[in-house]
User: Fold this.
Amino acid sequence: MTIKDTALKHPTAPRAGTELEVAFTDLLANGQAVGRVGGVVVFCFGPLPQETARVVVTTVKPKYVVAELRSLVVTSPDRAQPFCPVFGDCGGCQVQHLGYPAQLAWKRDVLRNALARIGGFGAVDVHDTVGMAVPRDYRNKMSLVVEEGSPEPTIGFYRQRSHDVVPIDACPIVMPQLSGYVARLNAARSNSATAPALAQARHLVARGARASAQAVLTITTVRESDAVRAAAPALLADLLGVVGITNSFDRTGENAILGRRHRVLTGSPEIEETIGGVRYRVSAESFFQVNVEIVGRIFAQLESELQSRPNVVDLYCGAGTFSLYFARYGCAVFGIEESAPAIAEARANAVLNGLEERVTFQTGRVEAMVAGGPGRAALAGAQVAFLDPPRKGSDEATLGAIAAAGVPNVWYLSCDPATLARDLKFLAAKGYSLGAVRPFDMFPQTGHVEALVTLHRTRHPSE
Assistant:
């Protein structure tokens, strides 16, 4: 049966199998559209805001239902034809069906709404989202899943909201060089020289560099693999541009893509990339941004701020991507990162660029390092605190230390609007005011929103 929105008089959830006609008004980061029927929220992948669709209820919860799309009744002018044949099955992209200008506007709205709803910033001027000229072929890292339990295992990406594997022959989101490896790796499943290695693999992680056209491949297995070691020379010869292959093993859990231990099997484990005049040697396992074009645009945005050569404390500095760019402009930089391998890469890249006299890198948890010792001293002498935390954001101990040190400027680069808004609210209470708020489309075709926010200290927290 069909139930119209106007036909329901009370918020009783429809049963599974019920067909509904729903007007959708919102879009979530996971790609699900949001509508309402008789007071019950309906989530469904496929429709867009401004669209009406016929859907069938699949899951019923006390306050909402999940549905599958059957057909569109009213179509949005912002709808686009997805360019990937497995879009909707593969969980890698969420919004290929939304035209790119509309994606950029939507991400700006997501950021603005989070700042208002969570941060309490009601009148923030959020700049237009900085996007890409061509919003595909951008990812420099590809993490393929290898299905278990088959002599010729399926290679692909995880299906939406599951651990099933969607087989692929190519990926239009990753660099063309990496996309070309998919077909070669699929063929390697039936090659006697390489099939035993792929039968043991759980993940295949490839990273490429635009500047050098080099790539590296890491094969993740449950334990160190003789079969992978034996197959490495054949794979190296078959994958054009790959300069090295490593074996990753000893995973922390079933969902881990990389293991805690790595062995170089053949060639070099690193490739060289260049962004903003800085050279970076990185591996498949590196803490390194996946979209070098957008990183370059963030660099360009910060360039004018660096003319005064401020002392910068780079919190969550990873492999030193931003630290080294700041140092190239003459800044003295103190970087903190809890990953020892990332700090080792940062130090090596400082030497590669002749910047070792301008940067100091320390290994440790950020909140502990800024509480005392060199980290606290560095904050006391800093004109800028730069933060690029993981998706969970920063924490009150770290943000409080920045405020207590009286750092006059904070540059916060975030990949999650909700945790960004939470942290900005804390800093505002400590005497900081928002400056420029700029979203960047680091991950086109997905629901992820990157944002750079500058803050300025306007009063002491005790005032």
